[in-house]
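Researcher: I'd like a structural prediction for the single chain below. Treat it as a standalone chain; there are no partners to consider.
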Amino acid sequence: MKNQHHHIPDKDERTWASLSHLGFIATLVVPYGNLIVPLIIWIVYKDRSSYIDYHAKEALNFQITLSIGLTIGFILVFVVIGIFLLLILGLLGLIFAIIAAVQANKGEYYKYPFNLRLIE
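Model: Treating it as a single chain, here is the predicted structure.
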């Protein structure tokens, strides 16, 4: 999504927006890091920067969506299809998080291709 907003983000805003998307990687170190990282960034910066607010909410919504899918995958592991679901969702989560972080760092407003928009 091209920059449709009027705000031009500075370097710090672009960095924090990018980090909100890369929270997905935090799950490798901290349980639920994929949810915690964008949530903390959103809480801290939502009133300071509309750019960070947008990206942190987008990242948080995506991570909630992904977590729901991964939970279903874990349940379905017993029927084998869950293994494939976990692999596909894990790979898509990583790919989309990296794409979103790169776009955020370039000053663009990225929108995930599939996302439950629970946090408005």
